[in-house]
C-alpha cells in the first residue's frame, strides 16, 4: 500500500472557502436526511396498480412497476423498512370474455397471464415484496369484510343503475363523457371521450354506493393536502372533476351477466364491481382487516393517468366510508406513445417489454424509461432514442470514465490511489482549476439534489443531474490528461494519483445514487471500485473525506475484479439489435 507523503497541514483560502460552502450544504443534507430517517417514518409502503390479465404485459405496465421499484429501492437505501406490492387484477367482464375467447377456464387463463407478469417483473429486477392476485382467498376475505363495513354503515343501498358502461375500462360514464364514433366496419357507436373505448347502455338492478355524500370530504382532503396527488396538475384535474356532478356509484353487477368476480355477501345474484374489488388489493396486502395499520398509514400509490378517477375519487370515498386513512400520496405518471401514437393491438405497435429488455438489457430499459419518462406529460418511445441515450450516457460517459480511471496504464497498482491535499489547491503548487472546485461542489451536493427528485418521483431530473456530474468528471480527467504525466516525477505522480482518487470518489457517488435505477450496473461499478455491500447506503455516502481532512476508508484499497465493460455499446442496425461484445 502506498502512503501519500504530502498530507496537507494547512489549507489555502480557496480550499477553506470551498470547505465553508460544503459544510453548509452538508449540514443541510444531514438535516434533511435526519428528518427523513430519524422520525417515526421508518416504514414505507408503495404499490403499483394491479394489472388486468386480459392481455399480455406491455411497456406501460412495466413503466408503472419500474417507478414503484425505484422508489422502493431508494427507501431501502435510506434505511426504511419498505413494502412493495404489485400483482394482477383478475376479475370482471373483460377478463371473463378474454378467457372465453381463449377457450379456457377463467382461473386457468388468469394463472397463465399472471405468471407472465411475474416472469416479466423477475426479469426486469422488480423487487416487489408482495405479489397479490385478486383470485386469492386472502383478498376475497378482505373485500367481503370491506363491503360489510360499508353495508353496515348504510353507505351501500339496493337500487338500479341506468347509464353508459365501458367494459374495456370497466367504467361507468355520464352522458357528457360519451361521444359518437364509427367502428372498424363503419357502424355508428358510442365511445368514452377519454379512452376512446366503446360504451354500451346498461340498465340493471344492483347495489349503489353513496359517492355523492363524499364530495365535501374529498374537497377538504385535497385542499388540506396539496401534495396528496402528484404532480400538481393531476390534483387540479381531480378538484375540477369534483366541481361536476358526482352521482352515486353502482358497485355490483347482476351475476347473470358477470359470474367472474366476488359475490356480494348475502346476495347470490350480484357480483361486486371489479374496481371496488381491485382497489381493496392495497389493503389485502397491508393485512386488512386485522393487521393493516402499520403499512396502511404510509401507503403511496403509483398509477397511470388513465386510472386517476378510480384512485383519487372512488378509492378515497370508499376509504372514508370505511373509516380508514387515506393514502399518503398518489403519484401519477403519463403514458408512453410509439411514434406519437397510443399503443394499441389494432395499430400493431404494442411494445413487448420482455423483448425490449433483452435487446437493451434490463438496466438499459429501466434507465431509458426513468431518464426519459416525465410524469407530467406523455413521452414517445422509439428504439433509435433508446440506443442513442444508452450509448451516450451509460456506455460512453459513465462506462468510459470507469474505464479510464481503472485502466492498467493509469492505475497499474489497481488500487484506489492516494488523494494529496497539497497537490489539489491551486496556490500550493497544485494544479486544480476553478472548474475542478465547481465540480467537487456539484458532486458534493448531488446526493441532496438526487434525493429531492427521488422523493418527488421526478427520476428524470435526478438522472439528468447525475449525468451532468458524470460529464463534469469526464471533463476534469480530460482537462488534466493524467496519461501525459510522468510517473517517475514525485509531484506528477501525486497529482496523477489525486486525479484518479477524485474521479473514483465521484464514481462511487454516482454508483451509489444510481442503485435504485440500474441495480446491476451500479453493483458492477461499485464492485469494481472495491466498495463493499455494507458501504453502499445513502446514509453512509461520504464524498471525498480527505477534503475534510478525514481518512478515507478507500485509500489504498485494492480495486475489485475487472468483469468487463460497464455497459456495452448498442448497435444501430434495425435487424441486429444486440449489444456489441466487450472486445469490440
Ligand atoms: N386493473 C387496473 C388497475 C387496478 S389498480 C387497483 C388497470 N390495469 S391495466 O393493466 O390496464 O393498467 C395498469 C397500469 O398500466 C396503469 O397504471 C396504466 O396507466 C399503465 N399503462 C397502461 N398503458 C400505458 C402506457 N401506454 N404508458 C404508460 N403506462 C400505461 O388499469
> At CATH's second level, what is the architecture of the domain at 382-558?
Orthogonal Bundle
What count of helical segments does DSSP give? 18
- Number-wise, the strands total 19
Largest sheet: 7 strands, parallel
The Cα radius of gyration reads 28 Å
Structural class: alpha/beta
The coarse overall form would be: elongated
Molecules bound to protein: 5'-O-[(L-methionyl)-sulphamoyl]adenosine
Domain Methionyl/Leucyl tRNA synthetase: 44-405
Subcellular location: Mitochondrion matrix
Protein name: Methionine--tRNA ligase, mitochondrial
Domain Methionyl-tRNA synthetase anticodon-binding: 428-534
Report on the architecture of this protein.
The structure is a single chain. The chain has helices at 13-37, 59-77, 93-101, 106-123, 137-152, 215-224, 232-241, 274-279, 281-286, 293-296, 308-322, 353-360, 362-372, 383-406, 434-455, 459-480, 490-514, 519-528; strands at 43-47, 51-52, 81-89, 130-133, 156-166, 171-173, 178-182, 188-192, 200-209, 229-230, 249-250, 252-254, 263-264, 267-272, 299-304, 329-333, 336-338, 341-342, 379-381. The protein is α/β, with parallel strands linked by helices and 584 residues long. The chain has a domain at 382-558: Orthogonal Bundle (Isoleucyl-tRNA Synthetase, Domain 1), CATH 1.10.730.10. Strands 1, 2, 3, 4, 10, 15 and 16 form a 7-stranded parallel β-sheet that branches. Strand 13 (263-264) and strand 14 form a beta hairpin. The protein is elongated and about 90 Å long. The model is unreliable at 1-40 (pLDDT under 50). 5'-O-[(L-methionyl)-sulphamoyl]adenosine binds next to strand 2, helix 2, helix 8 and strand 15. Residues 44-405 form the Methionyl/Leucyl tRNA synthetase domain. It is found in: Mitochondrion matrix. Its main location: mitochondrion.
Amino acid at each position: 500500500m502506498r502512503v501519500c507523503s504530502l498530507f496537507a497541514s494547512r489549507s489555502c483560502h480557496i480550499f477553506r472557502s470551498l470547505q465553508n460552502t460544503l459544510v453548509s450544504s452538508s449540514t443541510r443534507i444531514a438535516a434533511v436526511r435526519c428528518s427523513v430517517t430519524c422520525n417515526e417514518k421508518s416504514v414505507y409502503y408503495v404499490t403499483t396498480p394491479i394489472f388486468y390479465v386480459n392481455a399480455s404485459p406491455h411497456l406501460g405496465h412495466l413503466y408503472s412497476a419500474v417507478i414503484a421499484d425505484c422508489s422502493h429501492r431508494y427507501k431501502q437505501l435510506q434505511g426504511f423498512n419498505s413494502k412493495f406490492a404489485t400483482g394482477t387484477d383478475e376479475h370482471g367482464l373483460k377478463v371473463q370474455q378474454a378467457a372465453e375467447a381463449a377457450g379456457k377456464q377463467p382461473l386457468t387463463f388468469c394463472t397463465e397471464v399472471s405468471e407472465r407478469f411475474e416472469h416479466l417483473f423477475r426479469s426486469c429486477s422488480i423487487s416487489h415484496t408482495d405479489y397479490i392476485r385478486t383470485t386469492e382467498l386472502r383478498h376475497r376475505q378482505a373485500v367481503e369484510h370491506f363491503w360489510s363495513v360499508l353495508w353496515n354503515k348504510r353507505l351501500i343501498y339496493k337500487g338500479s343503475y341506468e347509464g353508459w358502461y365501458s367494459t374495456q375500462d370497466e367504467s361507468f360514464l355520464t352522458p357528457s363523457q360519451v361521444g359518437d364514433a364509427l367502428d372498424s366496419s363503419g357502424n355508428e357507436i358510442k365511445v368514452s371521450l377519454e379512452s376512446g373505448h366503446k360504451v354500451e347502455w346498461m340498465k340493471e338492478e344492483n347495489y349503489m354506493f353513496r359517492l355523492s355524500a363524499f364530495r365535501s370530504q374529498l374537497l377538504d382532503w385535497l385542499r388540506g393536502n396539496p401534495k396528496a396527488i402528484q404532480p400538481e396538475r393531476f390534483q387540479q384535474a381531480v378538484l375540477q372533476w369534483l366541481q361536476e356532478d358526482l352521482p352515486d356509484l353502482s358497485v355490483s353487477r347482476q351475476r347473470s351477466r358477470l359470474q367472474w368476480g366476488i359475490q356480494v355477501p348475502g346476495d347470490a345474484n350480484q357480483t361486486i364491481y371489479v374496481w371496488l374489488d381491485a382497489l381493496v388489493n392495497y389493503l389485502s396486502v397491508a393485512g386488512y382487516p386485522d393487521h393493516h395499520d402499520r403499512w396502511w398509514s404510509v401507503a403511496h400509490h403509483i398509477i397511470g393517468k388513465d386510472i386517476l378517477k378510480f384512485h383519487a375519487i372512488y378509492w378515497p370515498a370508499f376509504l372514508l366510508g370505511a373509516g380508514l386513512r387515506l393514502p399518503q400520496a398518489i403519484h401519477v405518471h403519463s403514458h408512453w406513445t410509439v411514434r406519437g401514437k397510443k399503443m394499441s393491438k389494432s395499430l400493431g405497435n404494442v411494445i413487448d417489454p420482455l423483448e425490449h429488455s433483452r435487446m437493451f438489457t434490463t438496466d438499459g430499459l429501466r434507465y431509458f424509461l426513468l431518464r426519459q419518462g416525465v410524469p407530467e406529460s406523455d413521452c414517445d418511445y422509439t428504439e433509435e432514442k433508446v440506443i442513442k441515450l444508452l450509448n451516450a450516457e451509460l456506455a460512453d460517459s459513465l462506462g468510459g470514465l470507469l474505464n479510464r480511471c481503472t485502466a492498467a496504464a493509469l492505475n497499474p497498482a489497481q488500487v484506489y490511489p492516494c488523494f494529496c491535499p497539497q497537490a489539489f489547491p491551486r496556490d500550493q503548487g497544485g494544479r486544480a482549476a476553478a472548474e475542478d472546485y465547481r465540480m467537487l461542489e456539484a458532486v458534493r451536493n448531488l446526493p441532496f439534489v438526487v434525493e429531492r427528485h427521488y422523493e418527488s418521483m421526478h427520476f428524470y431530473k435526478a438522472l439528468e443531474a447525475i449525468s451532468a456530474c458524470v460529464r463534469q468528471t469526464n471533463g476534469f480527467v480530460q482537462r488534466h490528461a493524467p496519461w501525459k504525466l510522468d510517473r517517475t516525477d514525485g509531484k506528477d505522480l501525486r497529482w496523477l494519483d489525486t486525479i484518479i482518487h477524485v474521479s473514483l470518489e465521484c464514481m462511487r457517488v454516482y454508483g451509489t445514487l444510481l442503485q435504485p435505477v440500474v441495480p446491476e450496473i451500479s453493483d458492477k461499478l461499485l464492485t469494481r471500485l472495491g466498495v463493499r455491500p455494507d458501504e453502499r447506503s445513502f446514509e453512509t455516502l461520504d464524498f471525498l473525506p480527505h477534503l475534510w481532512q478525514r481518512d478515507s476508508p478507500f485509500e489504498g484499497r485494492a480495486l475489485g475484479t475487472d468483469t468487463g465493460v460497464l455497459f456495452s455499446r448498442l448497435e444501430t442496425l434495425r435487424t441486429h439489435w444486440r449489444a456489441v461484445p466487450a472486445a469490440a
